[in-house]
Amino acid sequence: MREFLESLRELEAESERMPLDQGSRIVILSDLHLGDGSGSDDFLRNQAAVQDALRFWYLPRDFLLVLNGDIEDLQKASFPRIQAAHEEFFRLLDDFASRGLLRKIVGNHDLGLLLRQDLRHPIQHALRLEWRGRTLLVYHGHQASKFFVKHNYLSHFVVRYLAHPLRLKNAEVPMTSRRRFRAERRIYRASRRLGIVSVTGHTHRPLFESLSKYDTLRFKVEELIRTYVEAPEDEKPALADMVGVYDAEFRRLSDKDRRKRSRSLYESEDVVLPCLFNSGCATGKKGFTGLEIENGSISLVYWADNRVARPYVEQEAQEQTVLEGTTWTRYVLKRDKLDYVTARFELLRKR
Q: What is d(CA 298, CA 290) in angstroms, rounded to the nearest whole number?
């Protein structure tokens, strides 16, 4: 843990600083995993949705696009082949970059980009967003994996592996469920110690205010049942239907992986601090997730095909907008004011 703390301190100190205000608009995506266009290319599942969202939603609204690592999957294909297969996507990045609206952050699957001199878009290790004196540090998250923790990420690992490029192949470590949770737990604990909010990717698991979907569903079911007990009789049928929707989704998740619980991810504490956010990925079968910062708030969003029924998402979404001229809907699953997030973190961290 001490090694990762030092590494995270250095990452924060060396990263580009960007002040935020009420007018800031940022979208953070990670883990697109662009390949060579073949059957093993994970990006193909959501390519159309990602590109339409960028072209018709985020670019016209002047969002800063932050690509938080593992955008190109150099462990499956060479960079020239990836570029050739996804020229339309890279032209979209050119459009953002031409307006000064692009930041690319390196991940473990695209570390090899650090060795190239011909990049169309510069790449960096982290981005430090500053909201009223508080830090939201955007970095991919592989730095918390055991393989990287053994080396101070910037001081030792990058120098060593850049000096010996062939050793970059050793950076691939299978991302099992156990390793995912250990990395998230290191990030959570280090963020709490340092007093920063970490915004990561890497594990492919969306997190909002340090809570997983599993925990969110569990708490929601409990909240609905408590409301049901005190509700007037004419409101109980609707509440019972909502309990059914959430409970079905909760049971589906728990049957799939019973280890996805906050207890195994964080610490044995009653209050989980909002110091870890994760943008998820674009490699799932049903859509892609991301984080947005706008109007002084941070949101977890989900883009998906609106022709497919999603009872849980329809119930959970605070807001949903159909992207005109397409079959995609943008769902806002979670949203909180940055003032609330940072104040809650600061006040509860001192206890």
A: 11
- Name 99's Cβ contacts closer than 8 Å, sequence gap at least 6: 62
Indicate the SS3 state at residue 272: coil
Please, which residues have CB within 8 angstroms of residue 249's CB and are 6 or more apart in sequence?
217, 311, 312
| Architecture field, domain 2-212+261-349 | 4-Layer Sandwich (3.60)
pTM (2 d.p.): 0.85
Which of 219, 188, 183 lies closest to 204 in space, CA to CA?
183
Give the residue among 202, 186, 170 at the shortest CA–CA distance from 105: 202
The C-alpha R_g of the chain, in whole angstroms, comes to 20
What does the CA dihedral 247, 251, 253, 255 come to, rounded to 10 degrees?
A: 180
Report pLDDT for 197. 97
* Phi, psi (rounded to 5 degrees) for 128: -100, 105
Report the relative pairing of strands 102-105 and 64-68 from DSSP bridges: parallel
> 176 CB contacts (<8 Å, ≥6 apart)?
none
Q: Residue 69's closest CA among 11, 35, 108?
A: 108
Residues 6+ apart with CB under 8 A from 199: 28, 68, 129, 136, 137, 138, 139, 277, 278, 279, 291
What pLDDT score does 284 carry? 86
What are the sequence ranges of the domains in the chain?
2-212+261-349, 213-260
The conformation of residue 208, written as its DSSP 8-state character, comes to: B
Under DSSP, the state recorded for 46 is: T
Q: What is the DSSP string of 122-147?
A: -EES-EEEEETTEEEEE--SGGGSHH
Residue 256's pLDDT is: 47
pLDDT tens-digit profile of 219-260? 667 667 878 888 899 888 888 887 887 677 767 765 544 444
For residue 200, give the 3-state DSSP assignment: strand
Q: DSSP label at 324?
A: T
pLDDT tens for 69-122 read 999 999 899 999 999 999 999 999 999 999 999 999 999 899 889 888 889 999
Q: Where are the alpha helices (DSSP H) in 257-321?
A: 262-265, 311-316
